[in-house]
Write the structure tokens for this entry.
Amino acid sequence: MWARFTAVTGLVLAGVLALPGVATAKPKDLDIPVGTWLAARTHPAVQLTSVSYTADVAVPTPVANLEAIRGLTQQGVAAVQSGKISSDENSIYRWVVQQMAKEPGRYFSPGAPERVVEATAGGLCTGWWVTPDGYMVTAAHCVGQEESELAQTFATQALTKINEKDAADLISSLGDIASDDEIVRTAAKIFQIWNADNIKIRNVQSSLSLLQSLPGGGVDKTAKAVPIELVAKGTVYPGKDIAILKANGQNNLPTVPLGQDSDVRVGDTLYISGFPGTVTQTSIFNIESKLDPAFTEGPYNASRQTPEGVPYIQTQAPSYPGNSGGPVFSKDGNVIGILVGGLIQQDGGSTEGESFVLPVSIVREKLNEKNIKSAESVTTKAYNEALDLFFKNHYSDALPKFREVQALQPNHPYVAKYITDSQQAITAGKDESSSSILPWVLWGGGGLLVLFVLGTLGTVLRGKRRSKIPPSSFPPAPYGAQPGYLPPGQGQYGHPAQHGQPYGVPQQQPYPQRPPYPLPAAPEDTRAVRSHSPYGEPQQKPGPGANTRIAGLEAELEQLRRNMGQRPPDQR
């Protein structure tokens, strides 16, 4: 009898506690794609990071190497005569600058005067909070560059005006052909490479920061960079490309959980979160929307290892300059690695299916070296509970949870929008919360329990009085479910079908790269549609001699025209 009582009591209580809105829903119970669920839970912890450099930058004036150019003109004559290139002027000049771009140092030598600028440069990457009090993980190459890489960064960002002036001098020496866009682009490439090879950098200072979102989502134009300190740094790709940062004075920050290397294997879907420079460096979108992380997904293609024995995961999830340092997730929402790099084509584009991820075991190793323990914040716990209710259309139940998150972390980037969306859904009659009927259900469940206890006691007492009556005098027990029995399928939750779907930026890579190439911090876009960095344009102060023309080149090109049987432009 008491066994039967216990079984039925457990069923009554289980039925009450299983009511929607009482317990936090599990991800597998939510009828939404995995990618949607993951992006909502992880985006608050993903931050845009910045490394900035200031320095005095100097480059010499390029002087044409007349002997080398004379040899180039002779090759041009032979190419025209053999029919390899057309005899029209544009084709000849296009061929000349293309040959120069292959080896600029052969055709131009350093000369006087030296051009000097007081310049700033830097790049953008991705980082993510791993503790509530401000420890962050990113890639090592996002927090500092080697001298050769820094020279390239300054050459492409800080020397823009000098590069343009040198290219313009070369174009003017060629004649009135500035309308040929290919020649203009190639000339600019010549001096981006040449100035990077001859640059001198003095008095370098660097700083790290992040852009912290303001309430309501995104970052507006008044947002300030939050300083962040370097705690630990590994070696740049192909080494253990990881860095640990710390922002002081932080608490209750949203965090993401660390998983294990064994959480994923070849064939599983991986998910990347971060800030592609193709978006953050364009003028097409406003500041608020540009600083919302992008989410991509793709299969785990292969497990790789460098000659030094460092493990890497190859994935087909798309990644771009600026995604470097971003977290990579399993379908369960755990970080399984850091997006570090990919293979870059000669034109600067990324190669499809060749993104590389440093496994999470390396992250744990670096955190352990500094006795840093990853932890879920109270903000994240409350936020995730609120999201589960929100996605089940339990808006009235989700609303107080979202307000709790807002109280814990006033700078939470997304909670204000969820509060507004919940209020609008309630007003529109879309709320499916059980809050309004729950007290009645609980009262009813309690009443049933009391009645059952009283009934059971009465049955026991009557049984004692009738104990002498033969059992055969009782009518047969009815067919049907016995106490404690659940029909198949009752109380069981199904698993809904789940689907869903790196680098700082140059958009155009003007220098030969050795693949695989780590995804560097994101500099300013140099394409036709100019981008606008949140930190503004590099400040430049041209020094003496900045307007010096490239000496001696006109005479050699004049000789080239005569050899080709062409009249110089000023005689037409």
